[in-house]
Design a protein that fits this description.
The complex is a heterodimer of chains A (222) and B (163). Chain A contains 6 helices and 4 strands, in the order ααααββαββα. In chain A, a hairpin with a 2-residue loop joins strand 1 and strand 2. In chain A, helix 2 packs antiparallel against helix 3. Chain B is mainly alpha-helical and 163 residues long. In chain B, 64% of the residues lie in helices and 4% in strands. The chains are: A mainly alpha (222), B mainly alpha (163). Chains A and B meet through helix 1, helix 4 and helix 6 of A and helix 2, helix 3, helix 4, strand 2 and helix 5 of B.
Amino acid sequence: MENSIKSIWQEGFLKSNELIAPKVVNLYDRKSEHIIDKYKRMFKKNITAIASGAFILLFVSFLVRLQYMGVPMFFFLLFMAYVDKKLLTELEQIDKNKTSYHYLKSFDNWMDKKNTVNIKIARILYPYVFIALLMGFWHMKLKDQSMGNLFMEKLLQEFPGTSLFLGLPIWGILIVLLIVTFLFIFGARIYKWDINLVYGPIIKKLKELIADMEELREGYEL
Amino acid sequence: MTNDFYTTSILPHSAIIIKICRAYTHAQEDFEDYYQEVCLQIWRSKDNFKKQSEWSTWIYRLSLNVCLTLFKKDKKNNQLFVSDPVPADVVEEPPVFTNDALNHLYAAIRKLKEVDRAVILLYLEEKSYQEIADIIGTNPNNIGVRINRIKERLKKLLDGKFN
């Protein structure tokens, strides 16, 4: 059989027309469809959008007197742009010239790192945005008074017996904590669910390929 | 300048790229996309070629690496490997080679796992166990055992065609 497989291979390609290269059109202007290049493009766009968004948000927040929301969001967005920049730099270091095993392993490690980092960010992002919005509106000035003060005055007029902690209603603090916990848990879950939906098959296949190559490397064959 | 690079440095080795791309694609359209993508990646990575191996060996490695990590979107918009088996409800395209035996061999190779396809392609291209291990990044001592297993599997797949 060995000879027949080899002979099929060798004789099959004897005819020169079996190996005619497809027509190559605008090869060097072509947009790469490779996943690493797609990620690179996506990260570059994200970094530009996040960084410019951070400055626009900061400017607008001062215009509409929501600076208590704008300033924390500005720093958080800059932090996100920095994280993406670091991930992009690591992605650019993945070398397609390596052996297949090392190439797949470095890509898989990068995917794992990206997902771990993004899950952590998703856990913080939603509660952070919620608290930033709350702070922004609480400190927003209306007729020389902050909305928070106006709210507290109105509340204590209507319900004078409201229990307070640090000048805030305890039930209000509990609701905020409940929402923050909910967003902390579900922010990560939503991200994981989204990743599994879009990249689940790729991640699974990468792991399978690597496991198969590790079998070959470590001698489980014998 | 760039056209010269394709003509002088890629085209003379196009047979390698064609043989590899055919093993990882089921449809002609995918094959042509793969071929162009591999050529593009060779051109982009050319400065990383350190002359520690033959240019042709480097092309084998790069082509395999690109083919192992190319995906396309399916109808549900999920990203899937093009090398995955063709779903039962999709009609396979007609064979591309004039030689029937070669068509059957390629059909059998495409039924192997991706890593096994790489190993058998390099073996059929007369690469030594050490060269195969160097390209894939595995242990040369295990290549022989794996090749025997792949040949057994190919034998089973091809027996129905030739007996």
